[in-house]
């Protein structure tokens, strides 16, 4: 075998491993599963949400290809990223359904999550008002629920239980997921209390030490 052909064969065999070594995990990869509880939760009658949609100077734009863009009140892009899949369904605040999963929505520049977990009333009977200012996006693969906090330009990805054609209900004390199609013998309904989601939602709060903003005279401010 000629040396040139041997080199090409070795290069072809080693290319996949080199690509794997250089792969940067996506934000929703290697996320530990949530403690979803199978079966309907044993609670009393559910109270309907009486929330009004929040609004403000911060815009969130979601496109059909799964691009998410957040602009602050000055029109500066604070976040531009991709979703795990194409947007399928969306809700805002504490579970108000949106007519479409794509488009541009306005959100407040502040809200309960701006103060981190310290600004929440953990013992509240209805936790949905403390979810004001959030955007929830279900992607078409139905493997993840993306939760966006436009005010802080941060997002988290919640792994969903197995199933297809998922329906979500934002209840006073929990998030409930019902699957229209599941594997034989698998449960169709799951739920998790809001308290169980708080460790993940905590990442939507402000950064502990936000970067200082530069000026024309000091474009790179010192710590």
Q: Strand fraction band? A: 25-35%
User: Which regions have little confidence, pLDDT < 50, spanning 5+ residues?
Assistant: 1-20
Number of helices: 2
Question: Do you know the CATH architecture of the domain at 54-204?
Answer: Beta Barrel
Helix coverage percent? 10-25%
Q: What gyration radius follows from the Cα positions, in whole Å? A: 21 Å
Under CATH, the topology of the domain at 54-204 is which? Lipocalin
Largest sheet: 5 strands, antiparallel
Topology as H/E string? HEEEEEEEEEEEEEH
Which descriptor suits the 3D outline?
globular
Structural class: mainly beta
How far apart the termini lie comes to 61 Å
CATH class of the domain at 54-204: Mainly Beta
Across the major sheet, the strand order is: 6-5-8-9-10
Structural summary, described in words:
Helix content is 12%, strand content 30%. The radius of gyration is 21 Å and the shape is globular. Strands 6-5-8-9-10 form a five-stranded antiparallel beta sheet, with no helix packed on it. Strands 1-13-12-11 form a four-stranded antiparallel beta sheet. The chain has a domain at 54-204: Lipocalin (Beta Barrel), CATH 2.40.128. The longest helix has 19 residues, at 3-21. It has two helices and 13 strands, in the order αβββββββββββββα. By secondary structure, the chain is mainly beta. The chain has helices spanning 3-21, 194-201; strands at 37-38, 58-62, 67-71, 77-82, 87-92, 96-97, 103-107, 135-139, 144-149, 154-159, 164-170, 174-181, 189-193.
